[in-house]
Amino acid sequence: MHLRYSYRIYPTVGQREALARTFGCARVVYNDALAARKDARKSGFPYPRSSDLQKQVITAAKGTPERAWLASVGVDPLIQSLRDLDAAYQNFFDSVSGKRAGCPVGLPRFKSRKDNRQSLRFTRNGFRIRGNRKLNLAKIGDVRVKWSRNLPADPSSVTIVLDPAGRYHASFVVDVEPEPLPEVQAEVGIDLGLTTYAVLSDGGVIDNPRFLRKAEKRLKVAQRELSRKAKGSKNRERARVKVARAHAKVADTRRDWLHKQTTRIIRENQAVYLEDLNVRGLARGRLAKSAHDAGWAAFRRLLEEKAARYGRTVGIVHRMFPSSQLCSRCGHRDGPKPLVVREWACGACGVLHGRDLNAARNILAAGQADRLNAPGGPVSPGVAIPRRARPVERGTHLGDLRPTGNRAAGVGGIPIH
Ligand SMILES: [Zn+2]
């Protein structure tokens, strides 16, 4: 399975200049190739092949006075830039033909010098890690890396990213073998909440962390300051960097926190069941759609990645629960209750329920039932994950949140709300 490992890197002034040149060249090559494809389409010519495009916009272009400077940077990132364009087209074609699930993908667009995030990819030919632990990039030099954790194996590629906060990261793709943890008995259902982050069927509660709220408050202050600065002024640029840094801080803190929570859940449970976010979204309606959704998607993705790696199972419950109506102990259904009702006693068996805990228990039961009823019986650990752990940039594969196969909403004994 492919995993990404990211590290902060600290290029020198000279290396930053070389990187800036390479970012620029990769962008120009990408845009030239895109323009060539658009022209071919307009003139009714067949879709240009990648190898021909490569000759045209890299090899031949280097010989022309307008593009001679392409020769001053490494060729590997330029070729990778063309691969990215191929991938963007492929995603578009697959989306049009229905092969790709999820949000429709548009045609590739031209890249701008003003894009906030710049990136470059080097394959095995373009980089290596030196004995002194520095990262050697072809035609850039030996870059200092902060190795916050060890790479588990030799990486197959590295992407250098410059974020809007002005920080550089190296993101390695590593092919690793799964390393199953010793089996445990416990299984857990998780109810994602708006007031608390999540409630677990074993009674555990994950609260929204206070430090995150603090970081978000600082971000708001920085944004307000930015909006007061005159456009084009030096002060505004300074304020913009401040906002970008605050954003980065919130994102980093959230990621660390999510890693901690998901690692613990996967360690302690053999199977984890979650509700499908799309189905849940329907229940809440458009107005209730919130920033929570993004955080939940990341939470689910991390759980799935870790389950695949450590031999655990993540099951998604693709149906909507009348969770406040259904007793998780005896299955009795005794009518809807308004949101303010946080607790109630079951009319049949008399047990006292907390609203969220009851929902988490319902999710656990439904997840376990789905697993037993799935074709071929209980799935073996880690295999239940339908998606491949592909080395794609984070946040770009919305399609993964779609219900899959025969586990569509409404299958199973519990009626749709
Ligand atoms: Zn009951």
Number of helices: 8
Percent of residues in beta strands? 15-25%
List each distinct ligand once: zinc ion
- The ordered string of helix (H) and strand (E) elements is EHHHEEEEEEEEEHHEHHEEEH
Radius of gyration: 25 Å
Q: Which runs of at least 5 residues are low in confidence (pLDDT < 50)? A: 376-417
Backbone structural class: alpha+beta
What can be said about the biggest beta sheet?
7 strands, antiparallel
General shape: elongated
Mean pLDDT across the residues is 82
Spatial order of strands in the largest sheet: 2-6-7-1-5-4-3
N-end to C-end Cα span: 38 Å
Overview of this protein structure:
This protein is α+β, with helices and mostly antiparallel strands. Helix content is 40%, strand content 17%. The chain has helices at residues 13-42, 50-62, 75-97, 210-228, 234-268, 277-284, 292-310, 355-373; strands at 2-10, 118-123, 127-129, 135-137, 141-146, 155-162, 168-175, 187-192, 198-200, 205-206, 271-275, 313-317, 343-345, 352-354. It has a 7-stranded antiparallel sheet. Strands 10-9-8-11-12 form a 5-stranded mixed sheet. α5 (234-268) packs across α7 (292-310). The two termini are 38 Å apart. The chain binds zinc ion. The site of zinc ion has 8 residues, from loops.
